[in-house]
Amino acid sequence: MKKTLLALFLSAAPLWAHGDDALIKRGEYLARAADCTACHTAPGGPAFGGGYPVSTPFGVIYGSNISADKQFGIGNWSDDEFVAAVRDGVGKNGQQLYPAMPYDAFTKMKRDDVLAIKAYLLAQPAVHQATPRTDLAFPFNQRWGMRLWKLFNFSAGELRPDPAKSDEWNHGRYLVEALAHCGTCHTPRTLTMGMDEDNAFAGGDLGGWTAYNITPDKRAGIGSWSQQELVDYLKTGNVAGRASAAGPMAEAIEHSLQYLPDSDLHAMATYLRSVKPIADDAQRKARDAWGQPTQDYLTLRGGNGGEASGAALFNRHCASCHGADGAGKGSGFHAYPSLLHHGSTGAADNKNLVAVILGGVQRHMQLGEILMPAFAGELRDDEVATLSNYVNRQFGNPAAANASAEQVARQRQDANLPQPPTVLQGDRP
Fold this sequence. Notes:
The chain is mainly alpha-helical.
């Protein structure tokens, strides 16, 4: 009887009780650095239980359950099977994985690091739920086609240190290229949707968002940023007079980068400042070099100033936080950012500004929450276009002031955001 009770107790005990605490602790750090939770945890769902919808040009791909569950997760996966999935894009049953799982970056990871992540995941609560089925249209539903994709776009192999470089540089390279897989978003894609390594980190199209150029080019990239500014941005998502993070970058900072030690962030900044600078002729000056305060709000006094004008829309929806002159309010972590000298308003591509107006900003940070409300449910597509064009023209890069209602509608649909309520003419306040 005692033996049976002991066996039951041991079988119910968490897996970490039988493992190496130091290995699991390292696995936790590595899982944070690799941002595993971003794609493998559904909004509001249990950690690593899968179901996060990843939008791609070919349809929605759902992040898999990587919890310790033996039926739906990785609870009965061998070490070799887990390593093959992470580094080679091959599932437990030999199926080819879609590159929404960034194995073209994770292939550079050390095997021991991959197994440390596995040990950490197995130490977490099992989530007994199936992953929603990924159902892409033909021919993208033919997973065997990924073999052909790999022939052109996948070079397997662990990243080896460069003995001619410093330990910090090599560590930063490993973080940027492998663990944090920065190139997955920030490197443009080829016609076959592989990473264009000749233009590494020159910026990528994420559908509803643009991942900006993060090479050291002084106009198109981060060449004018100081080392400490880069570290502060990776840690907090905000650097006054430079940029504030939204969209996928805000998620990366929220779930991953803010938890890394400053030594890691310095190493990443050191490496990024050393890569080949890549220019962009469309960016005539640095994204954060645009903008002058405006006093357009004065023309609205004593009249409506044109109810649907950009100035009126800005005054009604934006000025209370960003200031009537666009210069922001407050200072420090919880300041409302200035729209002048800001990466999104000064970009040649207006996509991120439109996305922020539609979807807002939310970053759950260790220092507190950063929140900007979403206006998708309040503003029509033509109003969002008018407002974004006004913001670009008055506070940022006038050349980017070309959003259309059709573009806004596409971005709204791609992000699965609601339509505003229908109102009759004259009903708007």
